């Protein structure tokens, strides 16, 4: 078994209510609303007109260079650091208790955004900058008009924001072993994911709902991985290590 501190939060009925059922009850109506309305167009139209009737921020130094180009590399670097910490936990005793968490976070940060990226490459759903209303040549398509073997589109779900949302893996990897303020562990994934998504929306690269789908896939995918991890590689019940955040 991989080492870990003793879990102070179990995957009980309360956990599943707050992490599965409640998010499901919140996100399904929102996804339904976007799929059966023109809300995506409303938001995209607002950004497009605010930028002067074109995607003026598409190659902007901040939205592209900082948020997209370097943002992607930052997320990759954080994933590499997590893998390195897992490797170091076999050598350094102080890191050993967190080996399970390092392993889970490493796997989730790789697998979940990669799953979104695969779906994106298979889809024919266009980006805002692809559709005729916003200077492109394609017709608007709702997300669930998704078809595979696409020759164009490739914009659903949102790939870039999924890298940021992938940092939610930190919450699921370390949260079960933290006594206090564990919700703070959600902040890196939510802040970076939302920031990446908003920057891409300003560039015309994605609709709002495509980012909403990405966080949905990452969140519930992380829950599935956590369920499998606890079933097949349950954390060891070592002497409890205080893992409180001050």
What report would you give on this structure?
Helices cover 58% and strands 0% of the residues. The protein has 246 residues and is mainly alpha-helical. It has one domain (13-232). Helix 1 (13-35) runs antiparallel to helix 8. The longest helix is centred in the first third of the chain and has 28 residues, at 61-88. The model is unreliable at 237-246 (pLDDT under 50).
Radius of gyration, in angstroms, nearest whole number: 20 Å
Average pLDDT figure: 89
Tell me the number of helical segments per DSSP (H or I, 4 or more residues long).
8
Low-confidence stretches: 237-246
Strand content: under 5%
Helical amount among residues, as a percent range? 55-70%
Report, as a whole number of angstroms, the end-to-end distance.
29 Å
Query: Count of DSSP E strands?
Result: 0
Number of domains: 1
Sequence of secondary-structure elements: HHHHHHHH
Tell me the structural class.
mainly alpha
Shape: globular
Distinctive features:
mainly alpha, single chain, 246 residues, globular
Layout of secondary structure:
Layout: H1 13-35, H2 39-50, H3 61-88, H4 99-122, H5 159-165, H6 169-174, H7 187-203, H8 208-232
């Amino acid at each position: 078994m991989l080492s870990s501190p003793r879990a102070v939060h179990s995957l009980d009925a309360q956990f599943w209510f707050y992490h599965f059922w409640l998010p499901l009850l919140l996100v399904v109506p929102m996804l339904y609303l976007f799929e059966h309305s023109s809300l995506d167009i409303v938001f995209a139209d607002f950004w497009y007109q605010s930028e002067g009737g074109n995607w003026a921020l598409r190659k902007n130094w901040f939205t592209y260079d900082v948020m997209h180009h370097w943002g992607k590399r930052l997320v990759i670097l954080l994933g590499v650091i997590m893998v390195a910490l897992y490797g170091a936990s076999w050598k350094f005793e102080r890191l050993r208790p967190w080996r399970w968490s390092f392993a889970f976070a490493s796997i989730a940060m790789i697998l979940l955004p990669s799953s979104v990226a695969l779906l994106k490459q298979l889809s024919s759903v266009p980006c805002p900058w692809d559709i005729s209303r916003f200077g492109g040549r394609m017709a608007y398509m709702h997300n669930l008009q998704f078809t595979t073997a696409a020759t164009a589109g490739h914009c659903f779900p949102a790939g870039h924001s999924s890298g940021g949302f992938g940092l939610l893996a930190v919450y699921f990897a370390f949260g079960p072993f933290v006594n206090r303020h564990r919700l703070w562990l959600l902040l890196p994934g939510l802040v970076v994911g939302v920031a990446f998504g908003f920057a891409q929306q300003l560039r015309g690269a994605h609709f709002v709902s495509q980012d909403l789908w990405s966080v949905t896939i990452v969140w519930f995918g992380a829950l599935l991985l956590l369920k499998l991890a606890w079933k097949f590689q349950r954390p060891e019940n070592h002497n409890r290590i205080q893992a409180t955040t001050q």
